[in-house]
Amino acid sequence: MNDSIQTLAVYALPLLFAITLHEAAHAYAAKRFGDATAFMLGRMSLNPIKHIDPIGTVLIPVVLFLVGSPFLFGYAKPVPVEFGNLRNPKRDMAWVALAGPGANLVMAFLWLVFEILLHATGFTEPFFIQMAEAGVWLNLVILALNLFPLPPLDGGRVLTSILPMRYAYRYAQIEPYGFFIVIGLVALGLLRYWMVPVIQATGALLTVLVSPLTFLLN
């Protein structure tokens, strides 16, 4: 139990940052492209309380973790976006959707820089090193999951934006069932065929991005 509590403590702060900035980025992008709905509702905020869903963000992941579930799943409060208010709804939908995973990529990069600096300065406190590693991993997982091309996930919004209008309308009709489809894919272990390559690709990108810093420090 002590190990479980310590692990939860390590992951708590990176998870809060990952969720908060992901959702705030959606709200910012929506406002930037013409829809101020989320902004007026206070969702363009770095306050985690604005974005946390007590069931989806806290209860479900913690229970799954404590019972030793082979997979973890959770969700935050979705940012409300009135796509009809966007200046170019079909095109701008993709940019609003990509803003969340984009924020996760930036956070993964910053956590990796933090980890590199900890090692470079000889800092050996394992808690903070593990937290930095968790920050990188969590953000890459959230990025990969959200880019899965199925509505209501961000990747589904992007694909809907790209498809011709006729097919986009039909594809968007999957949205009410998308959440259950994703849970099924996770439970069956099939989603890893998407998650693993995306995580590996973005991890490789991060390695390239931090290579100048690692070169200087070495």
Describe the structure.
This protein has helices at 2-32, 37-40, 54-66, 89-120, 126-146, 154-162, 165-172, 175-187, 192-217. Helix content is 72%, strand content 0%. With 218 residues, it is mostly helical. It contains 9 helices and no strands.
Features:
218 residues, 9 helices, mainly alpha, globular, single chain, 0% strand
Give a quick precis of the structure.
With 218 residues, the protein is mainly α. Helix content is 72%, strand content 0%.
Query: Helical segment tally?
Result: 9
Largest sheet, described in full? none
Query: Percent helix among the residues?
Result: over 70%
Cα-to-Cα separation, first versus last residue = 39 Å
Going by helix content, strand content and strand pairing, the class is: mainly alpha
What share of the residues does DSSP label as strand, in percent? under 5%
What is the number of domains? 1
Mean pLDDT: 89
Rounded Rg: 18 Å
Sequence of secondary-structure elements: HHHHHHHHH
Quick one: overall form? Answer: globular
Runs in which pLDDT lies below 50 for 5 or more consecutive residues are: none
